[in-house]
């Protein structure tokens, strides 16, 4: 687990669960880079702390990566919690994945280490590193979206699912247009 300075009990809980904890500077890209530097293995899976893998996840990832044309992939997404707004968001994620093969980091992205090495590792950027990573992965092979779904927290949508969804779409358009990441992050976080 890579921690970028959390102030809750994340580190102690991870330690108690037997995870090896790597401390890094704040920022998701920095945390991912620190975790990769300490990780072993031929396959890396990036899991957000508020996301749970489905049963049989390992078998699903290994099966997808048996195809030599596959660079990596991600899981489908389900939000923890109930309500039509969350189901609508899941529907939107399914279409984004079908149309663009563009999963976000909360979908537990996985990649062959050899592919990650070829693309120069985790992109050093203050925002939307997950999309940069996926785009670079797709240059070296096919990206698979597994039918099995991870379950992620819906807490960031509690203040308005539609508003947050529109903010995500606007950030995605800004990313596609190449708007400066610091500027995008300031707008998104503000």
Explained architecture:
The two termini are 28 Å apart. The chain folds into two domains: 1-39, no CATH class; 40-159, Spore Coat Polysaccharide Biosynthesis Protein SpsA, Chain A (Alpha-Beta Complex). The radius of gyration is 16 Å and the shape is globular. Strand 1, helix 1 (10-16) and strand 2 (22-23) form a beta-alpha-beta unit. It has helices spanning 10-16, 28-38, 57-65, 84-100, 113-118, 129-138, 161-177, 181-189; strands spanning 2-3, 22-23, 43-45, 51-52, 70-79, 110-112, 142-152. The strands form two sheets. A five-stranded mixed beta sheet has the order 3-6-5-7-4, sandwiched between helices. By secondary structure, the protein is an alpha/beta fold. The chain is built from eight helices and seven strands; from the N terminus they run βαβαββαβαβααβαα. The relative contact order is 0.16.
- The CATH H-level superfamily of the largest domain is Spore Coat Polysaccharide Biosynthesis Protein SpsA, Chain A
Q: What is the highest CATH level, the class of the largest domain?
A: Alpha Beta
**The CATH topology of the largest domain, please?**
Spore Coat Polysaccharide Biosynthesis Protein SpsA, Chain A
* Rg calc: 16 Å
The helix-and-strand class reads: alpha/beta
Mean pLDDT: 92
CATH architecture of the largest domain: Alpha-Beta Complex
One letter per element, helices H and strands E, the order comes to EHEHEEHEHEHHEHH
Q: Unreliable segments (pLDDT under 50, ≥5 consecutive)? A: none
**Count of the separate structural domains:** 2
Indicate the overall shape.
Answer: globular
Number of DSSP strand runs:
7
């Amino acid at each position: 687990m890579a921690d970028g300075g959390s102030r809750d009990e994340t580190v102690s809980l991870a330690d108690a669960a037997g995870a090896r904890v790597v401390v890094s500077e704040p920022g998701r890209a920095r945390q991912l880079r620190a975790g990769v530097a300490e990780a072993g293995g031929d396959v890396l899976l990036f899991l957000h702390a508020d996301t749970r893998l489905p049963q049989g996840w390992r078998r699903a990832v290994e099966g997808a990566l048996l195809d030599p044309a596959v660079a990596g992939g991600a899981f489908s997404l389900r939000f923890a919690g109930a309500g039509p707004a969350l189901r609508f968001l899941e529907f939107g994620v399914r279409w984004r994945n079908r149309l663009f093969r563009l999963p976000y980091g909360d979908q537990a992205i996985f990649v062959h280490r050899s592919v990650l090495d070829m693309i120069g590792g985790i992109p050093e950027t203050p925002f939307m590193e997950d999309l940069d990573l996926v785009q670079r992965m797709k240059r070296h092979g096919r990206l698979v979206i597994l039918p099995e779904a991870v379950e992620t927290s819906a807490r960031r949508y509690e203040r308005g699912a539609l508003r947050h969804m529109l903010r995500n779409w606007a950030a995605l358009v800004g990313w596609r247009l190449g708007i400066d990441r610091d500027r995008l992050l300031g707008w998104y976080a503000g």
